[in-house]
Amino acid sequence: MDFFTNIGLIHYLTAAAVLFGFGLFCIITRRHAVGILLGVELILNAAALNFVAFEHFVAGGITGQVFTVFIICLAASEAAIALAIVLQVFRAHKTIIADEIADMKN
Amino acid sequence: MQQGPLFVASFWALFLLTVGSAGIVALSRNVIYSTIALLGTFLGIAGMYIQLSADFLAAVQVLVYVGGTLTLILFAVMLTAKIENIQTSNTWRGRSVAFVVIMFVLLILGRVANSTSWPAVTREAMPSTAKLGHAFLSEFMLPFEIASVVLLGAMIGAVVLARRAVKSGSDKE
Asked: What is the CATH number of domain B1-91?
């Protein structure tokens, strides 16, 4: 019962690992381009959670939170750029299924 | 430090919220449901940030992710997907391969986490916004400025990419 009542580092690492696993699953199995983007967001969140958890339990100080701010910043800009690309691809191809956009293969 | 029952209960509630919504994000057949379930994941992680004494990050998480990124993704989904047609919006491929890969990765992660003796200290959850601000304006000044340039570049790039290409006939006027 100690595992359930004494919340420590390993609990947050577990949550982050599960998030990472779901994100990877999302990226591998999805064919919809926005679905793949959702997986990327999950993985970025898992990494940020790991940074904050390690900072709180192991390192101390403030560095982990600084890195997490940068992760959030990059995730926001990545989402904006990726969605602009998605819109342009949809205009050009009338589809957003990643498998069917294969111009460079021909 | 003895953790109160409220802390433990709130952790497990946040854990269930985060992991459950992430499961819906990854497994739902409908991409709209996936996008909306991402809201639960973001909120759960914001709660975990508060438990980990990162109160400013929790606010930023809610503002930037829920207010900005999620809205953006929802717009993209609604503008592009044929939402009502599940077959086109979210079919699956390679589930067994993905499952094997993820089990492999999680095994490695679990083994590393268990075999390393982290020098873990249990600390009280303290407000840390002031310390974060001082760190940004002293030690991490240059990365902070570079991040703002990156954001500006991304903003201009997104506008340039997303605007409709001007027809060659209409720009002569």
From this structure: 1.20.120.1200
